[in-house]
């Protein structure tokens, strides 16, 4: 933090639209008060189930896809290549990912995957 201290001799500028925003801070802090160990376990179990079921659906339809993640977080990559780095991820079928995300939105499911 000393590097971005504006009173330092040569501070590094650090700016952002929501930096220090009280509403954003409150929105981030509120779930932290509700996330008990039991709630976290429930969310993780739901994430495990969703990843497993997505893999099963893709396999049943012969869709080359990898569903990755842990806990309640997931991501989908439409490729049969081993994912080792950013370039491998970007080489996956991004158009199919976009169609998948839009299709899920049309069914009322927001995945928040980067398309």
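Sequence proposed for the structure above (115 residues):
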């Amino acid at each position: 933090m000393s590097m971005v201290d504006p009173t330092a001799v040569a501070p590094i500028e650090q700016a952002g639209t929501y930096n220090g925003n009280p509403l954003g801070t409150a929105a981030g802090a509120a779930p932290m008060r509700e996330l008990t160990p039991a709630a976290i376990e429930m969310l993780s179990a739901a994430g495990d189930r969703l990843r497993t079921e997505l893999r099963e659906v893709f396999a049943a339809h012969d869709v080359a896809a990898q569903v990755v993640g842990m806990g309640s977080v997931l991501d989908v990559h439409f490729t049969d290549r081993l994912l080792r780095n950013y370039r491998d991820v970007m080489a996956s079928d991004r158009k199919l990912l976009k169609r998948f995300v839009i299709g899920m939105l049309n069914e009322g499911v927001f995945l928040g995957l980067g398309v």
